[in-house]
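Q: What does the assembly look like in three dimensions?
Context provided by user:
Components: two
Sequences:
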Amino acid sequence: MRKLLLAATCGFTMTLAGAASAQDQALSNDYVKIGVLGDMSGVYATGFSGPGAVGAVKMAVDDFGGSVLGQPIRVISADHQNKPDVASATAREWIDQERVDMITDLTNSAVGLAVQSLASDKGVITMNTGAATTQLTNEACTKYGIHYGYDTYALPVGTATAIVKNGGKKWFFITADYAFGHSLQKNTTEVVESLGGEVVGSVAAPLGTNDFASYLLQAKASGAEVIALANAGQDTVNSVKQADSFGIVQGGQQLAGMLVLISDVKSLGQEVAKGLQFTSAWYWNYDDESREWAKRYMERTGAAPTFPHAALYSATTAYLNAVKAAGTDDADAVRAQLNEMTIDDFFAKGGDIRPDGLLVHDMYLLKVKEASASKGEWDVAGVARVIPGEQAYPPLSESTCAHIDQ
Amino acid sequence: MNRIFWVLLIGLGLAAPFLIYPVFAMKLLCFALFACAFNLLLGYVGLLSFGHAAFFGGAAYITGHVVKVWGFPPLAGILTGTLFALVLGAIFGKLAIRRQGIYFAMITLALAQIIYFLSLQLEFTGGENGLQGIPRGQLFGVIDLSQPLAMYYTVFAIFMIGFLIIYRAIHSPFGQVLTAIRENEPRAISLGYNVDRFKLMAFILSATLAGTAGATKAIVFQFASLTDVHWPMSGEVVLMTLLGGMGTLFGPVVGATAIVAMYNELSAMGSWINVIIGGIFVVCVLTFRRGIVGELARLLRSRS
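A: Here is the predicted structure of the complete assembly.
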């Protein structure tokens, strides 16, 4: 009897294990595979990742013709749940089993850092469009990691400068408690202090906080003129809405969203958000080229593109162009090609990928319009100022990236 | 008869990296060891700890830190993590075994949450970022663990050692006393056994091996994160044990395999996966309470 039981146990274990392995085990690489690893269900699923991100990548692949160097281009996607361990395990499996050639999106800086270092160890290119921390191209920079779109250095250059020059000198931070929030707070503080402002305090809130009451009350009591929200996605929306119900703006304090997307403005409503200034890497209604692309994107996905979605399209296209030009999907050759190329499309005007992996391009300071001034559902903001790439990003000589000196 | 089982287990274990994705096989082994360690306490002493994530995740952080920052070799790192779990287990156990049933579970949960908040706030853990980029290093200074096969067989060896320790403990006089305590504690006391001492020893052993599992996982994934130390992990291990068969030697291995495989296969379904696994748990509790292995054993026993 015992023998049978044991055999059955083993058999069952084996069946399960077998089922788990029934995935693609082919090691063939006669295709180019792009992995979209993003937050598909959490706080960043609306504007940064989610179906809109996968849609943007697929659109780029379709526009490219679906194949490169005579090989089909495949796109796979997964939800990292904002957990760096899940992201890292997924990326590892993609690289080992699925043979992905490039991983993109990577919203959430903790995820971005984890996957960039893992992928580079294994010789796979990452094109990070979602995560914002400057660590990606500084102390944590890697040979194959590219930071495409924006970072926490570029965001406050527009927003914080505008606010301090308008007289908002005393700042208080509500910060998302992980790599991104801390990085954004640090960079914003530098901008504020360099212009003669001061930071009177800060509080860290966990990612995905629903109740910002205690943080907002601390901010209210701090005596600051400006309450900076060093968070993003649903966290920003929640904190702005709750600040409204605490009467913070009516009480004379000003809110500064350090990373706001047009989808956030939309869910806040222009009434709540009006007058809000924020920095964006791209705005769909900026010029004809952007409008034309945005229109096609909207037809495909049903929503207006945010700047991370546009960045995904642009990054995918840039990657495929580099593969085509290099004549191979070998990571070294493609990375070298990306270094040489100039990226000049609807998203990145005069864009250049530097040896530290940072894409330098123009950024925009946007201001939310009055609802009456909007000409369409998504016409929520106007461009107040174009920030040239060399102002938005620090020079390469200031990068602490170790490998560029070699 | 036992010999056949061992041959099968070892044979399958040796062949696994050729049949399935090695990293997945390593994950299975880590969770199987974790579940076996937990089962020692739940299945053989009848103590439901709801704080085993603290040992699992805590050991992962300690191992990650000593390997990454202090430059320990991987095996020494795993041993340090295990030692940490042992000490933590002694402290938790000493406090928790004074109470029984739901109170025992609540005390272990509360203590584990302290470890969770420490992990969230302490500098060296990296908070939400997790402890990233733990090097796998070299075993005994010669075997390069970045090779999947070398890593796999190291993990397999660690699993087998842990599994043998549990097997030995269960089939020893010590294990018999534990079962006696589970069946009838007052009688065990009246027979002159120092029940608290036995419970504490079982608790420490269970915590230590859970720590070994967590420490090994940290080396495999080169990552220690809040997921490992958060309370749902404590719940997951209960689920693995119950589904596989509480109080059976192989049940937790089967349960861990089933749950990990399900999470892997169904990950595309997003948060629905928790609903599905919850449903399976309900079905398990309502219809086959002995778990997969427990029910199989009963079926075979009634036939023979």
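Follow-up: The first strand of chain B starts at residue 131 and ends at 132.
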